[in-house]
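Batch job 17 of 40 flagged for manual review because the log was empty.
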Amino acid sequence: QVQLVESGGGLVQAGGSLRLSCAALGSTFSIYAMGWYRQAPGKERELAADIRSGGGTNYGDSVKGRFTISRDNAKYTVYLQMNSLKPEDTAVYYCFADSRAGASTVGSWGRGTQVTVSS
């Protein structure tokens, strides 16, 4: 199984920056994708960004051009650099990892880290 440990959330003014980190522990050899979802109270969870084992990335439309996802393969850690933050970016950010288990895919989730952007 995979355990995900997030850090880097906090309070920032609009226009500022934060960097989130997510470290994977356990059966990391089976992970083929990692990334971040976010969820505000009363709203549906939405994808912020993901990165695959081959290096390809994907971003939600609302964060394109402002957020950058990267990885440290040796440490099994992914980062989300968030620039030009807006109040609508306020949410709990959850790290995820997708792992292969035979013919199935198993998802793992972190506990979440709060990001609050003030106007």
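Reviewer: the log was empty due to a logging misconfiguration, but the result itself is present. The mean pLDDT is 95. Unflagging and moving on to job 18.
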